[in-house]
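Entry for the shared binder. Reason: the reviewer on the internal report wants the predicted structure included alongside the sequence.
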Amino acid sequence: MRILFTWHAAVEPEYRKLFKEIAKKGYELTVICPKAWTEGGRLQGVDNLKEYGYSLFLLPVIFRNRIKGFFYPQVNSLYQIFRKFKPDIVHIFEEPYSLACFQMVTLAKIASPRSKIIVQSFENMIIPQRFPFSSIERFVLNNTNLLISIPKAGESVWRSKGYSGTIKQLPVGLDEDLFKKTESFLPDYLFLNKKDKIRIGYVGRLAHEKGLSLLLEAASNLLKRSSDFELLIIGNGERKRFESLAAELGIKEKTVFIDAVPNYQLPIIYSKIDVLVLPSLTTDRWKEQFGRVLIEAMACRTVVVGSSSGEIPNIIGNAGFIFEEGNISALSKILEELVSNSNLREKLGEIGRNRVLQNFTWSSITERLCSIYKDIK
């Protein structure tokens, strides 16, 4: 079976491990992705076109980093890829309302009309799209054979928008051999090895909706009862704003900010963190769609704490703590308990690792994805 897979985030090496797993299953695979994209807070490109078991095409895009508005200008090149490869399945990991998704669906209909079309989405909120994206979304849904939703809430979203075809729910995964507890160190951050207090961490975008201000306020509350902790904040975005807030809250000396690091360095970071917090806040146009940092930290036996926003409770399960989003007092109490209870941290860390191995490895995700491929065929 021939699969043509297109995904803007495939610039990230960790995500391309999915393709290696698919190729191992005996599928003939061709992948299309942008030459460059900002993923994981960093502008990334792909260095090696000769990757294990599949063909990779890197093409320039217009409106880079705009999920809804980007597209590939080299239409003839795309057309030739479709015509020569003759895919049985075209797997489009882009939102149904996006220009790129519309472009790929249209090309599939013209250049490879016998192909089955799968569209994969992170969407978990019912957000009406304005023209022309409303028309794009309707066209894509009318021409898609199967839809894969990352969050569990996605099915109700797409049903409400009129999609009557098959919908499958499938999370994204990770490489469990990379994401595991390690004693390695990062030369640029040797101070991480000098840990004499419980380290509470945050990894992700430094933005309002990610709830970092709640974590800083909870840490300020915690400081009134315990000084046996420190904060490590990793990511790019509104850093100055949150540094100022930390100073205002009296926890500046307790807090260290680091810019986003490459994905392959994250296991070392997680291994230096005792508790990872994802305090996301739902807005009128966004709620947490997955929370990848949670499975990464869990795989490294780091205890996770998350808000009730979006998919977070489904990811954490019984491997950590959930607090009502926006509830600073509840978060403060959870952190106080975890800071003072090493046995609880160790127990939850073990549960988290096992949960990832059972549900969130690329190999387990690929098994489920290949079943979808076979069913649609």
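Summary line for the report: The chain has a mean pLDDT of 95.
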